[in-house]
Structure formats: structure tokens, C-alpha cells
Amino acid sequence: MSEKSPNLMMKYAIYGVIGCLIGVYISQYLGYNDGSMQAYIGGAIAGAVGGGVGGRIRQNKGKTS
User: Quick check: pTM over 0.90?
Assistant: First the structure.
């Protein structure tokens, strides 16, 4: 895999989005948020950014998967 390939970043961004959306749903079920669309969009954005950064860090360390 090429050093400049965004595949690892994209993979971790998708994992981050899915994980954060599950977390927002669980927190809504437990009563910690109101379940508004803003909570879900914010969670998805935060998960994508966090996952992308994590994927970039792994890529810079030489990981390929």
C-alpha cells in the first residue's frame, strides 16, 4: 500500500462514525441526551474526525491495516 493512500484513514473514519452513532443512541436510551438530529450529526462528525486522525497516526507509524 502506498504511503499516501487514504484507505486506512477512510477505514478508521467509517469505524469512528459507526461507533459514535451507536454511542449517541445508547446515551439517548439512558436519558443523557434528547435524541435530536444535532446530537447524531455532531456524533457522526466527531467520529469521522477522530477516526481519520487515528488512521493517519497508524499510517504514519507504518501500519497497513
Answer: no
